Amino acid sequence: MADTTPGAGEPATVTADPLPTWQTDGVVLAMEIVDGVAYVGGNFDHVRPPGVPRGGAGEVERTGLAAFDAATGALLPWSPVATSPVFTDDVVQTECDNLGNNQYRCDTVWEIKASPDGSTLYVAGDFGKIDGQRRNRIAAFDTATGALDPDFAPSPNSRVRALAVSATTVFAGGHFTEVNDVTRTRLAAFNRSDGALLSWAPTADKRVMAMVLAPSGGRLIVGGDFNRINNVWQHGLSAVNVSDGSKGTFLSNDIPYNNANNRSWVTDLVSDGSRVYASADGVGTFDGRLAVNPDTGARIWINNCQGATQSISVMDGVLYSGSHAHRCDMQTYYEGNGFPETRPHRRFLAEPANTAAGTKQKILHWFPNAQPGTRYPFVQGPWTMANDGTYLWAGGDFTEVNDVPQEGLTRFTTHDVSPDVNGPVQTNFQAPTAVANGGGKVTVKWGATWDLDNRKVRYEVVRSDGAVVCTAEANTVFWTLPNMSCVDSSGVPGSVYKYRVRAIDPHNNRISSPSSPDVTVT
Fold it and tell me: Which of 165, 268, 283, 354 is the most buried (most CB within 10 A)?
């Protein structure tokens, strides 16, 4: 397990070491893990093995949808093709494939959700066909066979961005205003058995981007960029009743709206069976995470770290998030505050999910990073996350993970399954300085480094004759790196030595600094 001192009682995170995983040649926007299979969707045309550049050996076609072994990251045979007609528009379509000459194609998969029993997989987005068969923006697959469901074929008139699935019903939210030529204003429901449009018809005045069923099953929590649900003002986060579509009580007012220059909206919703967690994007205001009571909507805790959060996943008492967090000093980190305004932005964060109501939220020591690419217009990094209790998957528009090339997909796991194998951060771990003090003593000084998922780092000062002359340790984070020193009292007068420093994490992973200049012991 990760070193947990001095934050005794805090939940352990997965390691920050990414596991070998296949890659995509475009953005991944949705994922779901069912019976050991990680299904992913987005806007991509090919996938390839880990470590292989675009167009390299082993690359194969996958158009908008793909499946992988959740435990090994290996590609599986499932390969439906999501497509859409080409259209022309003078307005730039930033979320579609730009083909040039004002021509675009929107075939992106935005959402994937499984039925509670795992037998059916529902996908939604912009596409118009699956494997050449007409499926307007929503489709279903049998997970046992991988086959497209021949009966489930509703026809929303615009993007479906969010799904939630009960034993009998598929709930959908998005940008649409009609389904099967019947008015449905951004919210709709379908019979799971045959795809029939149900009478359930609450309304949202703007886009719905996320939804999750409350653990009780009687309420649907919805999130997005709307201002009104059923014409009742409640911006960004609300609830509707499953029975009749009426607006449910929702007490939280944490998703602010003022004007176009100062507003935020919900991007993702998840539940751990007792609480519901929301993530937000924002302009000049809230874009962190919060936890609410699913039965009342009352806020339990809030994290005001700045930097748009696009995805969240809760696993073993930890809420993981994909974001571009750049300031977090309004939250606590163990005994101190979180990080100040910083670059590069931190693309992944972790925090306790079960923080008590009214308690200031903490961030945990888990800081892997993902470098976003430039092809996708929003340059975010992580856009979606999912876990099966053992493996945490993340997808997005990134091209590197922890400074190593890896595009579109990555995954992490617990220390019990795959031990921590990467040492502290090598970047900027400089050579120490060494000064002879007389009497055979040398003072060695160096700047501390830090570790992605362990707060404690131990240091060994190694003399050029191989002797470890002194040791030290410190709890360090990337935004506070202390200067450290120790004294070598065992040098032989008249000798010339160099010194280097080894940084070692609690799992005995180590890195070494460059050697110091020569120093003569006097």
Answer: 268
- Dist. CA 116–CA 462, nearest whole Å: 57
**Nearest CA-CA partner of 422 in 468, 466, 369:** 369
Count the neighbouring beta carbons within 10 Å of the beta carbon of residue 266: 28
State pLDDT tens for residues 33-90: 999 999 999 999 999 999 999 999 999 999 999 999 999 999 999 999 999 988 888 8
Q: Which of 42, 202, 69, 67 is nearest to 146 (CA)?
A: 67
Closest to 80 (Cα-Cα) out of 39, 117, 52, 48: 39
Rg of the chain over Cα atoms, rounded to whole angstroms, equals 26
Q: Which amino acid is at 395?
A: G
Q: DSSP string covering 340-388, please?
A: -S-SSPEEEEEEES-PPTTSPPB--S----EEE-SSSTT--SEEEEEE-
Q: What does pTM read for this prediction?
A: 0.95
Q: What is the residue type of 418?
A: S
CA gap 123, 107 in Å, rounded: 12
Give dist(CA 337, CA 318) in Å, integer.
Answer: 19
Helix (H, G, I), strand (E, B) or coil at 228: strand
Question: What sign results for the dihedral spanned by CA atoms 244, 249, 254, 258?
Answer: positive
Alpha-carbon span 250 to 230, nearest angstrom: 13
Hey, what are 409's tokens? 């997909």
For residue 123, what are its two tokens?
């996908």
Q: What pairing do the DSSP bridges indicate for beta strands 97-100 and 23-24?
A: unpaired
Neighbours of 189 (CB within 10 A): 25
CA 105, 110, 114, 115 torsion-angle sign: negative
Place of tokens 């494939």: 97
Cα dihedral 386, 392, 393, 397 sign: positive
User: Which of the pair, 374 or 362, is modelled with greater confidence?
Assistant: 362
What is the pLDDT confidence band of residue 7, given thresholds at 50, 70 and 90?
low
Q: How far apart are CA 409 and CA 258, in angstroms?
A: 36
| Amino acid of residue 447 | G
Provide the total of helices (H) and of strands (E) in the chain, helices listed first.
0, 50
The whole-number average pLDDT for the span 208-217 is 97
What are 289-318's pLDDT values in tens digits?
999 999 999 999 999 999 999 999 999 999
**Which pair of structure tokens corresponds to residue 25?**
């040649």
Contact 201, 241 (CB under 8 A): no
Whether the CB-CB separation of 159 and 137 falls below 8 Å is answered with yes
CB atoms within 10 A of CB 516: 24
The reply to whether omega before 6 is within 30° of 0 (cis) is: yes
Q: Are 105 and 89 in contact (CB under 8 A)?
A: no
Number of CB atoms found within 10 A of residue 151's CB = 11
pLDDT band at 220 (very low <50, low <70, confident <90, very high): very high
CB 144 within 8 A of CB 118: no
DSSP letter at 195 equals: -
Q: Are 172 and 200 in contact (CB under 8 A)?
A: no
Amino acid letter, residue 46: H
